[in-house]
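re: ur question from earlier - yeah i can do the single chain one, its not a big deal. heres the input i used so u can compare w yours
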Amino acid sequence: MNKRVLSTFPALVLAASFGSAAVADVDSRTYLVPAVSYVVADDDRLADDNAGLQLGFGKAVSDRWNMEFSLVGDILERTDNDNKYEQAGVLIDGLLFFTRNPAFAPYMVIGAGALNTAFAGDNNNTNPMANVGFGFFRQLTRGGTQLRLDARYRVDEDNRTVDGKSHERFEDVVVNLGLAIPFGAAPQPEPEPAPEPAAAAVAPQPAPAPVVVDTDGDGVPDDKDACAGTPVGAKVDARGCELDSDGDGVVDSKDQCPNTAAGVKVDTKGCKIPEVVVLHGVNFASGSDRLLPESLAVLDEVAATLRKYPEMVVEVAGYTDNTGSRAFNERLSYRRAKAVRSYLITKGVAPEQLIAKGYGPANPVASNSTPEGRAKNRRVELHTLKR
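and the output i got, formated as tokens:
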């Protein structure tokens, strides 16, 4: 048995523990994996370590799992004579991802297959093979090509090869370095919703008799009033429109933050948009990404502000409390952020203005030890990325 195996796994477990909590979209394309291997031979083989090759195909089958089919091969030369192990095999592996972060996506791999070994001329046999290990993907190109590195503990149930002497199995360590190259074009962003059909043109009506009418009572006759329906008592200009003293685009009667400095971006209440906005009142059904009805009025105001500033880009950030597993909460928070993004797009916000991210229980704003604190931690925030 190869005693060096024991020193390999702690490093892999430590590597798998790092990585962002954010959850990215799953790339569902089939991919090709060409790789080179380095085989650390079992001491019982009495063979030198050597390089090998691997060629595989894989595909994501869920948010957390990929399945792969691989062909593997290597040649290990004996240290005590001129014989060598010429090995070729097939593997079916499952890859369990801890996160799908494109910058660092650690995973655990487990799989089984068969390995054929040719040794000392006529000694040729095929035996069951299994492997388990850890590795990671890192995206290299916008098209989705990724660097891939993993280390595996391989068990070869070969008990007949070494000089005719019986033994239970060989246990090797295999380190693979390669690329994951997807087939086809990269997934496209969600399409913009179709524009609402234009209202049918209305035939002009005959001009009314010259009667002075001021329906809204703002002192400007209707035929000169560019802003009909002004609230009673509101101050208007010569065009009949409410005054906007600070020029922020919000009329004085609705401006809760008067005297805003010139050029400052404001919300529908006339107040400066902060870097981080907590969307109080945006709630979901328990354990679900379904928006509750009372959330829509809040999101309608957000949509109005973003339509006013099409150059703005914001991150829709979803958070949860710490109830349940971290992996479930990360997926749930991402789905909730994506639901808010989708609703805002239906209200006319450009898709490129919105980026959805899920952070699970990270960055709590209150203690998770009380129901009130957990309620505050279940939230959606807007993070300004570009003004």
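Residues 3-22 have pLDDT under 50 and may be disordered. not sure if urs matches, ping me
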